[in-house]
Amino acid sequence: MSAGFTLALCAICVLPSAFAASLPLGPLGAIPRAHFQNRQSIRSTTDPSAVFVPEYAQRESWGILAKYQQSDVLLQGANVSPSGINNNQNGLVGPDVTSGLPAPTSEQIVPLQAISSASDSILSYHAMIDIGTPAQHLGLVIDTGVADSWVAASCNDCETEQFDASASNTYRSFPGDFRQAYGNGYVWGTWSRDNVTASGLTASPQSFGSVTAMDVGNVAYSVSGVLGFAFASISSTKKTPFFESLISEASLPFPLFSVALGRGGDTDDSELCLGCINNSKYNGNITWIPLVSHTYWTIMLSGLQVGGLNTMTTGLLAAIDTASNQIHVPMSVAKRFYATIPGSKPALSYGEGFWTFPCNSSPDIQFIFMGPTFSLDPRDFNLGKTSSSSADCVGAVLGMKGRDLPDNFAVIGSAFLRSWYTVFDYSSGSRIGFGSRSTA
Ligand SMILES: *[C@@H]1O[C@H](CO)[C@@H](O)[C@H](O)[C@H]1NC(C)=O
Ligand SMILES: *[C@@H]1O[C@H](CO)[C@@H](O)[C@H](O)[C@H]1NC(C)=O
Ligand SMILES: *[C@@H]1O[C@H](CO)[C@@H](O)[C@H](O)[C@H]1NC(C)=O
């Protein structure tokens, strides 16, 4: 029995009333917005006249190869046989927990700030997290593609807000080097532990890397750290990830978390819901898709359609990754995909894997996960014009070619997730739920 499954069984036993009683006193309020505004501009991604800024998308393409370099090993044994589709024609699995869930409390709601770089089409979603005693507030990237968390601490070359370990009386460091792929490089330091609190929920103590050095290439924005939400099975040293700590410390009514990602701008409503589903964030019902691997949040992408035509010949293992922007598919899949969009061409000046399409076309793009189809909003498919006077725009579906990556692997980033309220559920055998986002 896997660790995730064991945790899920225990956590379901916890009654919602126990949850309320176990909340720490004095939960924090909303994110102080000024904290982010001091550092980065906040823009909307929906500006149709935006010009594509290649360096950020290129960085992500390189970074994906480093981030997922272990995927070949980690995903071995995952079920991608097309026969898996027939077991679940409509993709609906397990009980529909949405009606039985208590409404989220403010202690469970973590507002996310969508931070843009110079390019309107690239957003990074940060949560204000409290670390240590007394609490220090740091904006950490929410990342469902890694299990380990880290914060910059005593990092001389990091141009970012940092955690001051010496100022926390609950901080402990312990032996063991920490290293994680980030950007198109690495961060490294040592393992440590301290209290980590998101909104009103505390993991105490929580293991994380104290990062003392970064070599991350040209990252698009300054980053104080990452809060990893993937499964413990892919933790480099099998440390319990933050959310699994919350589950085992029995303070959640259900072992699931939900993510709403906005398009930036003043009306952005990005949010993380810990142990809850915010019914106001989506329309209709949640559609559930079973996981095919408890490593990354991996589901089977069984089809990729343009105007109703499927461009895929075989299923892909798709990691749902809140910290990536684009949609990364094998190069051969990207080639067939763009071949069905009239007027599209490879954009080799940006590198292999980039394509343009006519800005005035609005391709009807659908992702099929084990049966049900999910559309990609044309605004999120468009990464921007190649120049201010150009009629060609860069597409958010990128081809990837990594020596070490499995050839049936895809990474689904926020370009897709902005249209779909996403529930990451450890129960019912573990599954992903998508609900149609109710706001523009
Ligand atoms: C922080 O951790 C310590 C030691 O585990 C614990 O006693 C204390 O209650 C924690 N503080 C908070 C705010 O959770
Ligand atoms: C749920 O989402 C709605 C709509 O975005 C928001 O107004 C509300 O604050 C969120 N949180 C709770 C606890 O309902
Ligand atoms: C949602 O699910 C309920 C219960 O299964 C069903 O009655 C209802 O028709 C569904 N609504 C939509 C919009 O699919």
From TrEMBL:
> What's the domain of life for this entry?
Eukaryota
UniProt keyword Hydrolase, yes or no: yes
Q: From the UniProt record, which GO molecular function terms apply?
A: aspartic-type endopeptidase activity
Q: Does the keyword Hydrolase apply?
A: yes
Catalytic residues (UniProt): D143, D321
How far does the signal peptide extend, from start to end residue? Answer: 1-20
Name the Gene3D superfamilies on file.
Acid Proteases (2.40.70.10)
Residue limits of the Peptidase A1 domain? 125-435
Gene Ontology BP annotations: proteolysis
For this UniProt record, give its keywords in alphabetical order, as a comma-separated list: Hydrolase, Protease, Signal
Q: Which PANTHER family match?
A: BETA-SITE APP-CLEAVING ENZYME, ISOFORM A-RELATED (PTHR47966)
User: Would you identify the family this protein belongs to, as annotated?
Assistant: Belongs to the peptidase A1 family.
What's the protein called, per UniProt? Acid protease
